[in-house]
Amino acid sequence: MLSTKVEELLNTQVEKEGYSSLLYLSMASWAETKGYPGISQWLYAQADEEKNHMLEFIHYINDRGGKALISGLKKPPETYRGIKQLFNDVMSHEQFISASINDIVGLCVQEKDFTTQNWLQSFVAEQIEEEASVQAILDRLNLIGDNNLYMFDRDIMSMRSSGTESDE
Ligand code: OFO
User: Is residue 168 part of a domain?
Assistant: First the structure.
């Protein structure tokens, strides 16, 4: 059985994972219209992962005797100044999600909910992987500069296979 506080915080994470999915979907659609098929494919895949994360939180809350809540999600931005800014935004968002997961782990320790704390460990590990994967993309973009992104767009999915693709 979840404590009220843990259940509430897990429900805020349902919302955040749902928003993550919408955010990456919006970025994917923008990149697709700008002629970056590889980058949009990466972002669509990322959006799917985030939806799966949201579902994992929903099922966990319900399985532990709580009630998962689906709230209205805020609208993600529709346009981006460029590819580098977009991936900077992805990094900031992932850092925000990492901090949010850490907050739930902290509350679980406080509430002595070691079951949920243990369940969250895959998300702690996932966030390390997500941030490293996006940092690798930013490192490459820094090397390339803002022009000649054809090869980057062609290769980005192969970077994914050594990064977040191990996630589901
Ligand atoms: Fe759900 O891991 Fe990214 O946000």
Answer: no
pTM to 2 decimals?
A: 0.92
- pLDDT tens digits along 115-147: 999 999 999 999 999 999 999 999 999 998 877
Q: Is residue 108 part of a domain?
A: yes
Residue 154 belongs to a domain with what CATH number?
A: 1.20.1260.10
Residues in the chain: 168
Residue to mutate, 95, 97, 102, ligand 1, most ligand atoms under 8 Å from C-beta: 97
Q: Looking at the 3D structure of the chain, how many domains does it have? A: 1
- Give me ligand 1 centre to Cα 53, in Å: 7
- From the CB of residue 73, how many other CB atoms can be counted at a distance below 10 Å? 14
CB atoms within 10 A of CB 26: 18
Q: Is 16 in the pocket of ligand 1 (CB under 6 A)?
A: no
What is the 20 CA–ligand 1 centroid distance (Å)? 6
Give Cα 56 to chain centroid, integer Å: 13
Residue 98 is encoded by which pair of tokens?
């990492």
In a domain, 96, yes or no: yes
Look up tokens 């979907």; give the residue: 25
- Host domain of residue 85: 4-163
